[in-house]
Amino acid sequence: MADVPRDLLQEIKRLEDLFTVDKAKLKKITDHFVSELAKGLSKEGGSIPMNPTWCMSFPTGFETGRFLALDMGGTNLRVCEITLTDEKSEFEILQSKYRMPEELKSGDADELWEYVADCVQQFIETHKLTDEMDTLHLGFTFSYPATQNYINHGILQRWTKGFDIKGVEGEDVVPMFEAAIAKRGVPIHLTALVNDTTGTLIASAYTDTRMKIGCIFGTGCNAAYMEDCGSIPKLAHMNLPPETPMAINCEWGAFDNEGKILPKTPYDVIVDQDSPRPGQQAFEKMIAGLYLGEIFRLVLVDLHDNKNVHIFEGQNIDKLRKAYTLDSSFLSMIEEDPWENLSETKDLFQTKLLLSATHPELELIRRLAELIGTRAARLASCGVAAICKKKGYETCHVGADGSVFNKYPHFKQRGADALREILDWPEKKNPKDEDPIEILAAEDGSGVGAALIAALTLERVKAGNGAGVMAPETFKK
């Protein structure tokens, strides 16, 4: 950075100090995380809800049957037909994607469920599924924090991913969905309401027996793992066998809502204050794809408005002033720019923001993207390390899905490096050697995982174990 002026060099140093999370801090965050996981399982609760899911076993790989899977994410709605075949861990999938209209995210609850039901009906009619099956058993991936007293019901705790629809929080979403489906006369039996993270865990374990944790690093962030029922004090009144496994949907985006441990910058504070839910999802707002571009944008606006720093001088930055105009893919493109003169980044700023950036400005922009992306990966690893420490896992696989994990450059390696620091692994003798705990690309949790959980639930009910299933007798029809 020999050609970078002093004012910009000073800002780069300031940003490095702000966004760098060192090994000692990672360890402190992880230790606090472990205690918060335990608190969420206890009767008094905590910021992390640690929701029991009533998914009570890993798959064997020999599940069979045909199922529908519905995935309601932040951007798309996906409907799948999944056929679990006779071959071990083999399946066939037929799917369609539908765009989730932005206006629905803050609109009317009825409009939301009518749209979802329309998409499901369209899929079923297009593929003539009712010609082949009397009842379509559905695994519904509902990727929002929900309290589940039964696997086929779920009370929405709070909206995330930019949704803000009145009249749904605190209510069971299943009857709303079923009412919209019933109007259309489609023979669907909602067998399991599934969080995408739980689906990721189960789908990944279907093909890999070393899989112990499922994670999502995408628009939002979350994790799921199997806990022994005897280690869940808030379920003690159910008198479940203590060794029985129960998938726990952590909803760890809410970690440290109290602001005790996470190293927030002034930009993180603004992101939180300007969000639909200030004071909530503290962890998510520092590592999830929805927010990375916004943190980056806020820093650049702040630098431009600082009279002692000279960046985009004499240029109109109105496009840059628009909140959420940049997403994590914008940062990905900056980090992927292979040219020493950062020509692709220069073109990106010109095309997207109508800003002409000098080479020193491009150097700062590149370093800022690296800092924000690296911090996200390192903080994300604190959650993975915390679950491993709580469960005593010294070796395992972690299945991760989501756009940030799959598409953001260096995210996997940065996360692996942070795990090594937190858990004090020795340096590898051979770079090709596996780490004791590896975060790998997950199987399709919201499709195959949801279908598998529906299959596991049906098997459980048929075997006479209806714990955590609402009206299990209706499943036997």
UniProtKB/TrEMBL annotation:
Residue span(s) of domain Hexokinase N-terminal: 12-206
Highest taxon in the source lineage: Eukaryota
Keyword presence, S-adenosyl-L-methionine: no
Pathway assigned to this chain's UniProt record: Carbohydrate degradation; glycolysis; D-glyceraldehyde 3-phosphate and glycerone phosphate from D-glucose: step 1/4; Carbohydrate metabolism; hexose metabolism
InterPro entries the record matches: ATPase_NBD (IPR043129), Hexokinase (IPR001312), Hexokinase_BS (IPR019807), Hexokinase_C (IPR022673), Hexokinase_N (IPR022672)
Any one of the GO CC terms: mitochondrion
EC number: 2.7.1.-
Catalytic activity: D-fructose + ATP = D-fructose 6-phosphate + ADP + H(+); a D-hexose + ATP = a D-hexose 6-phosphate + ADP + H(+)
Pfam family, one: Hexokinase_1
UniProt-listed GO biological process terms: glucose metabolic process; glycolytic process; intracellular glucose homeostasis; mannose metabolic process
Molecular functions (GO terms): ATP binding; D-glucose binding; fructokinase activity; glucokinase activity; mannokinase activity
Keyword line: ATP-binding, Glycolysis, Kinase, Nucleotide-binding, Transferase
Ranges of residues in domain Hexokinase C-terminal: 212-456
Enzyme class: transferase
Cited PANTHER family: HEXOKINASE, HEXOKINASE TYPE 1-RELATED
Family: Belongs to the hexokinase family.
Protein name (Swiss-Prot/TrEMBL): Phosphotransferase
Species assigned in the record: Venustampulla echinocandica
